[in-house]
Amino acid sequence: MPTWFFTSVVAAMLIAIWGKPGPTSALEVRQSSSNPNAILPGWNRLGCFVDQGGVRVLRKASFTSATMTPAACMNFCTPGNFAFAGVEFHNITHPRRKECWCDFAMQTNISAPDTACNDACTGDSTLTCGGMGAITIFANSAPNVIHPANKPFVNTWQYKGCFSELDPVQQAPPARDLQRMVGISGPVSVEPCTAACKASNFALAGLENGGECWCGHTMLGGVRVADSNCLVACTGDPTEFCGSSGSNNGEGHTQISIYQDTSAPPVNFQSCLETKIVGDVILRPVLQNGSSIPNVPMLSGLSDATFPHGFNILSACANGICLDHTNLGLFGPGILNGQQAASFIVNPGDSPVSVFGIPGATFFNGYCWMANPVNPVGSLFQPLLLGVNSRADLWALCPNVTADGRLDVVFSPRDGHPNYQKSACESIFIQTDIETQVAIKSV
Fold first, then answer.
1. Which residues contact 369 (CB under 8 A, 6 or more apart)?
2. What confidence score (pLDDT) does residue 276 get?
3. pLDDT in tens, 303-345
4. Where does this polypeptide localize (predicted)?
5. DSSP letters of 164-221?
């Protein structure tokens, strides 16, 4: 289950228990009093926020104490020029201990009512230090506070955005958006990561978990998400963001900050980028100007009366009924309807055909991923195009005159075919959308 979904559900349950936030409370007045254990000069109380173990609000630095106060937490966070400090309940096993957290940015910002942050501080019982599943956040207004940002350009590298990361646990074999992790000597930031990728002739660089550097020639997966999903400061330069860290216990998805080298050689649109699939795909036809095709959301393998049982032809979904995953053995032995699938060679003028349920069936290895010239994010990003015989621009949807006008996919239509009229065919690209569960806030 995606971390964001779990966190949102828990947050809704907690708020239902706590009640809705109200006007300025006695708690806020007390926390902002002249008590030296309360708020230090230059700090301001932001409020009470939902904080669960899946994705913490603050996570860059922390400590626990049996004598915790808001001032003690701020004193801990101040030397690091952190923008935020927060105090909260530790755990049931050690009820006397409270937690202090620091960060340059808030990773989530789900508000909770003040009644959720009513745990007495162990260092001063007249003050409160968050609660169970809730954290009291304070903001640092000092002039030297660090506020990370995404740099539009780093030398020749352009920031492309925050992208959802493929889940290596769910993919077989394990896969990532970018294929090679690069070791950086010393703390990681955008500059040494992009330099390392450039030295190895990669066009894309990505950073995540605050200190991981990844390189690749193309994005194997991932979709563009809001920059607010990538708020972990780089270990080597806290003024820059380096993706996200997923959940604290290693589960859930991370997001990755992607940069592209604008000085890399031009993209070759008639050359394969990848020949191995990293997960299930959905095949979506689009017109070659990038427009969607009305009433044809995706392609699917359909049985045909002219083929033996177990054979499928690639067609538009019939009556809105589509396969959830359209692997069809295009990139090697796949699974279709729970049975092994394999594809056959594609000849000019014919449709792609696959077979399932025949153990040991050989498959055609001429399919590949190719650059997508109509992708607004970039030609090397998902969704890429399905190519065959090193061409992605020769696909068409053709009404099958022998099957009540069913729209079949045809590679390089030809005159005189018994199943369709070439003049009735519509040229298309076939986009290959990776099927992944992603934890995102929309762009």
1. 218, 272, 273, 274, 275, 384, 385, 386, 387, 432
2. 72
3. 665 666 667 778 887 655 555 445 555 655 555 455 566 677 8
4. Membrane
5. EPP-TTTSSS---SSSEEE--SSS--HHHHHHHHHHTT-SEEEEETTTEEEEESS--S
